Amino acid sequence: MSARSSLVLGTRGSRLAVWQAEWVQARLQEIAPSVTVALRRIKTSGDMIVDVPLAAIGGKGLFVKEIEEALLRGEIDLAVHSMKDVPTILPDGLDILCIPAREDPRDVLISRDALSLDHLPKGARVGTSSLRRQAQLLHRRPDLTVQILRGNLDTRLRKLRNGKYDAVVLAAAGLRRMGWSNEVTEYLPPEVSLPAIGQGALGLEGRREDGFVQELVAPLEHRPTRTAVTAERALLERLEGGCQVPIAAHATIKGDTLIMDGLIASVDGRRLIRDMIQGPVSDARALGMRLAEKLLAQGGDSILSEIYGKA
User: Fold this and answer.
1) If pLDDT is split at 50, 70 and 90, which confidence band does 55 have?
2) Residue 52 has what pLDDT?
3) Distance of CA 163 to the CA centre of its chain
4) With contact defined as beta carbons under 8 Å apart, do 181 and 80 qualify?
5) 23: buried, middle or exposed (CB in 10 Å: 19+, 13-18, 0-12)?
6) Which one of 1, 200, 219, 269 is CB 3.0 to 4.6 Å from 211, fit for a cystine?
């Protein structure tokens, strides 16, 4: 490894993305005080297209593509992503070099009148950016009016306060990182809203051949989180799903055992296929693939064929 005196972190420009990058920056400065770590904000396609549902424009890689291109050009040395935004297939030459410990992976409901999901009035307008959340909300409360909600975290909260929605569903991780947990009305258990693949986890992406950066970030690696996210992403890879398809999975590690729940749902929530699997942590990727096969065999294949057919 050839020592370097500086490196550049690439990040999206939202307040949450910058917070995450600054957290990584601070940890790296602790690990290597002699290395100057600078931040570079990069605008992604997902940030620029704010008036169209992500599902309508492909969904995959919209929040990472431009950052990965900067990595490949050598303009930045390390990218900080939310793992739920990262496609399962990475560009040649790039790897997820480090996955730090996961934040709370759950979804949360925030409502203007402090009402829980089950106590929202019929027809209540609930905003979400995700077809995965939409499907599960409608599965439990088919009487709700689910509306697409785009924008950064602070933008979504402002739209709720302005009365455009009666409630919104967001990721707990972002709110916790920003210090906004007091906004939460209800933490939705995985039985009600199974999280997105990789939700709550950060991924530090870099060039495969960059030994200096690999060694630098190694102390931040959290093996249990890596194992859980590996299983979840294997399921997503087998189902060929993007972040906007109603697919969800969440893995937990207990000792040497990995336990994972997964689901495939129709967009309207009327059909929802759910199952679980468990096995040794050493088989994380195989377990994710196997759970995907179980979901497909139970009817998930017809749901996905219908969704992809309309895409």
Assistant:
1) low
2) 52
3) 27
4) no
5) middle
6) 1
> Does the CA dihedral 265-46-64-83 come out positive or negative?
negative
Top CATH class, 232-310: alpha beta
- 6-101+200-221: CATH topology is D-Maltodextrin-Binding Protein; domain 2 (3.40.190)
User: Mean per-residue pLDDT for 28-57?
Assistant: 76
* Residue 130 DSSP class: -
Q: Which residues contact 287 (CB under 8 A, 6 or more apart)?
A: 231, 234, 258, 260, 277, 278, 279
Judge: domain 107-188, CATH 3.40.190.10: yes
CA distance 203 to 81: 5
Which residues are designated catalytic? 85
Say whether 232-310 and 6-101+200-221 share the same fold.
no
Q: Are 217 and 28 in contact (CB under 8 A)?
A: yes
